[in-house]
């Protein structure tokens, strides 16, 4: 971590020729449980991970914004007057879109000084760990400080969501930004996506000698975006036919009626959301009463529900989950939007390398590309580092 902070500071000086005003960072995230519940006004339980995006930021007397990144070759320069969705494209739309979104919360873009940003990150891009939100949240926190906006972290999460929705054009919810901004070390964030109330839930992984292993299958299905939109549409239809404003308003008691009212596919989509919301609540209760070893079956059940009812898993994710469980994982499930991406397994620390080897072996046996497997540590959220 100290390394990428140093890297960001010295790259900033090389590129822009002066010392940055400060260094801020924000982490990527993993969702422990609660999948496709966010846009149904339901519950999620993500945590921030020990991979962060660092931004060195400086202001100076100028009328342009400039942004560079170790991830991109180009240095982007744009007049401050052009900081709006029409002019922001490519990767720089993420950091500079935040500046535009902040104008909706009191920033006066006609009055701010010239802005320079250099980005260095160890959050893998496109691996489902939310590198995009890590970048937005780091910039949002930095500009909130430098422009003295005094916004709280829940508002900064909204700023990041507005950036994704209105500048980048990605229909994301509020979970990832909230995890990046609000998380604490060795804890998960229990978030109610309707009220936006949240609670920090100790995970106790350290004390229990447990680790979370991520298995990044590297699979990215072309129909992922279409599939996501289709699932959202099914959920909306299910809610409408059941006479509620969102599936959040239904519980297991409503399942018999749902079975009568809905066609089979819509019923199974709805059943996933209803049972997944309950599993999040049960996971929080189990963590609080019995600790992390008690949540394995809930993780496994979540995976089965996504595989059979929501139908968003793929062969590689099923193989990763099955292999982890067969080799002693406490629980495992695919995580993220589905149709590819990563699975997570809760494992005893001493079993990590054995399970990694077993997964490599299983994928080789099925002639599938070997996944990238690595441990993530629940970590503190965004911060000013210098
Ligand atoms: P993820 O699941 O990692 O968030 P996205 O497709 O949502 O995947 O976001 C990835 C995009 O975010 C990249 O293509 C790039 O445009 C931008 N991005 C992420 N990290 C960086 C970085 N360190 N520097 C520049 N751009 C970045
Ligand atoms: Mg993203």
Helix/strand layout:
Layout: H1 2-16, E1 22-33, E2 43-60, E3 64-69, E4 76-79, H2 93-102, E5 114-121, H3 131-146, H4 153-168, H5 175-182, E6 187-192, E7 198-202, E8 210-220, H6 224-242, H7 255-261, H8 264-290, H9 296-309, H10 315-326, E9 331-335, E10 340-348, H11 352-365, E11 372-376, E12 383-384
Parallel strand pairs: 3-5
Antiparallel strand pairs: 1-2, 1-12, 2-5, 2-6, 3-4, 6-7, 8-10, 8-11, 9-10
Helix pairs in contact: 2-3, 2-4, 3-4, 3-5, 4-5, 6-8, 7-8, 8-9, 10-11
The structure holds adenosine-5'-diphosphate (ADP) and magnesium ion.
Magnesium ion binds at residues 130, 132-133.
Give your account of this protein's structure:
41% of the residues lie in helices and 24% in strands. The protein is an alpha+beta fold. It has two domains: 2-200 and 380-384, Ribosomal Protein S5, domain 2 (2-Layer Sandwich), CATH 3.30.230.10; 203-376, Alpha-Beta Plaits (2-Layer Sandwich). The longest helix has 27 residues, at 264-290. It is globular, with a radius of gyration of 21 Å. It starts with a helix and ends with a strand. 48% of the residues are buried. The structure holds adenosine-5'-diphosphate and magnesium ion (MG).
Q: Main attributes?
A:
Ribosomal Protein S5, domain 2; 11 helices; single chain; Alpha-Beta Plaits; 386 residues; 2 domains; binds magnesium ion; binds adenosine-5'-diphosphate
